[in-house]
Amino acid sequence: SGQCPVCNTQLEDSDLTEEEYNNLRERIIRDVIHGTDTFRKTSPQEFEAFQTFVENRLPFDIVIDGLNVSHIKPRKMQCENLFDAVSYLAKENARLLVLGRKHMLINSSNWKREIMKEMQNKADFFFAENISEDDAFLLYATLRSGKHCKFVTRDFLRDHKACLSDSVTRHLFRKWQRGHQIVFSPSVEGKHINFLPAFRYDCVVQTTGDTWHIPYKDIFEEKYSFQVPRKWLCIQQK
C-alpha cells in the first residue's frame, strides 16, 4: 500500500505528473532513441517499421524484452521461459507486446515452432533483425502506450539514463523506471517464474522532517543489482 505500518506515514508515490511524463517521453525519444546510440545496432528502416507497428496497436499494458526474459532459467528451453512469462503476465487480460528476434521463428532446440505459435495467441510480437538493440524499442513502445504501461527486462538501462543530458531528466527517468519495471523473483527455485510487481511508491530515502524511511537490502547481490530493495527502515525522532 505504501503506508508505513510503524508510523502510518504514506510514502511518496512513484507516479510522475502529466507534465513530467510528457517531458520525459519527449527527451527519451529525442536523446536516447533518435540520439547517437540506437542506429548503431538497428537500421532507421527497421525502427520506422517498428514505430508503425506500435502506433497501429496502441496502447499496450506490458512490454517484454523477449530475448532477455528467455534466459531467466538457464536449464530450461528459452521458448519455455518466455512462454511461462507471457502466460503469467497475460492472466489479467493485459495487452502484451513481446520484442523478439527473427531467429526465434526458426525451429530449433531452443525455439519450438508450436510453442511460439501458442504464445502469439496471447501477445503481440515484433520480430527484429538478430543484431538489433532491444532497449530503444522497449522504451519507445512503453512510453508511447501511456503512464499505465509497465515493462519487463532484467537490464538496468544505465546506458540510456547516461544519454540524458541533464540531471532533472535523469532523476525522472529513474523514478519512472522504479515505478514501471517489473522484475522476476530469482530466489524462487520452483517450476514457475515469479514476477515482483512494479512499486506504487517511490523506493528512495524519504523524510517528512521528523521521520525518515530508508529502503535497504539484507544482502548485496551483484547479480541482481537491477532489483530494488523491498525492506524499509523507519526512523523517528523522539
TrEMBL record:
The keyword Magnesium does not apply. It is found in: Mitochondrion. GO terms for molecular function: metal ion binding; ribonuclease P activity. One of its GO terms (cellular component) is mitochondrial ribonuclease P complex. GO terms for biological process: mitochondrial tRNA 5'-end processing; tRNA 5'-leader removal. CDD domains: PIN_PRORP (cd18718). Residues 1-234 form the PRORP domain. InterPro entries: MRPP3_PIN_dom, PRORP_C. Keywords: Hydrolase, Metal-binding, Mitochondrion, Transit peptide, Zinc. Its main location: mitochondrion. Belongs to the PPR family. P subfamily. This is Mitochondrial ribonuclease P protein 3. The lineage of its organism: Eukaryota, Metazoa, Chordata, Craniata, Vertebrata.
